[in-house]
Amino acid sequence: MHFYVITLFPEAFDSYLNESIIGRAIKEKRIKVTFVNPRMFVSGKKYKRVWPDGNVSRIVDDRPFGGGPGMIIRAEPVLKAVESIAKKIAKKENRKTKIIHFSPSGTKFTTSYAKATVKKYTDVVMLCGRYEGIDARVAKILKAEDVSIGDYVLTGGELPAMVLIDSMARQIPGVLGTFDSLEEERVSSSEFYTRPEVLEWKKKKYAVPPVLLSGDHKKIEAWKMEHNKKEP
Ligand code: SAM
Predict the structure, then answer these.
(1) What is the pLDDT of residues 25-66, one digit of tens each?
(2) Distance of CA 129 to the CA centre of its chain
(3) 5 vs 203: CA distance, rounded Å
């Protein structure tokens, strides 16, 4: 699975994607993440300014038609960024691409969504909004699906992109240790305990539920199912 992230802030991903299971999946080439910054596709005198000291300002946003406080990411740099990716994908064989545009009002992202996407697609392009968002024509032109990670508004699509990469990556064979590691593929509870059997904290004792120490696997599975608060 190749993830392409269209973002104005690619550095925001550095530490998360380099750590632990996701970092290993990238090193082992089970997944690939490529960042494309729309700023690099800014053109025209109005938006791209070269200063006497050689510095270049690339302005990706502009004021909203109809008024409003927030700036809008312009369509052109985003479309050109996606076009540059599409050209690379077109050179490969047997690819199937999905384009996702992050929006707080989009389709709710779930584990089932992650599973279905991993099964069906080889390349996932993710458009991360910032400010008020990306010009609405981009999602229409690209036939991108609006996807939300929850009923709250974040400052940008970078956290949603990390959530999707993490959740989809763990569905790819070999990314987690064994298939059994996937919570959805086994009986798992939302409550778990490790040593010691009795924890002493501020003069109080907290014991592990006895059933987990019983060695009776049927009873343990029943207890885990009872204590599973996760939604499917
Ligand atoms: N005014 C926009 C709206 O109501 O749709 C919200 C803009 S938000 C400040 C900036 C960007 O963050 C959005 O364009 C989107 O890409 C991303 N974003 C914010 N909350 C999100 C959520 N819950 N799920 C997915 N993306 C989100």
Answers:
(1) 999 999 999 999 999 999 999 999 999 999 999 999 999 999
(2) 13
(3) 51
pTM as predicted: 0.94
Q: Is 69 helix (H, G, I), strand (E, B) or coil?
A: coil
Residue 35 corresponds to which tokens in the numbers above? Answer: 């960042």
36-45 pLDDT per residue, tens: 999 999 999 9
Distance (angstroms) between ligand 1 centre and the Cα of 154 equals 6
* Identity of the amino acid at 212: L
Residue 112, number of CB atoms within 10 A of its CB: 11
Ligand 1 centre and the CA of 159: distance in Å?
10
71 pocket-lining for ligand 1 (C-beta < 6 Å): no
The domain segmentation of the chain, as residue ranges, is 2-178, 186-226
**Domain covering 2-178, topology:** Alpha/beta knot (3.40.1280)
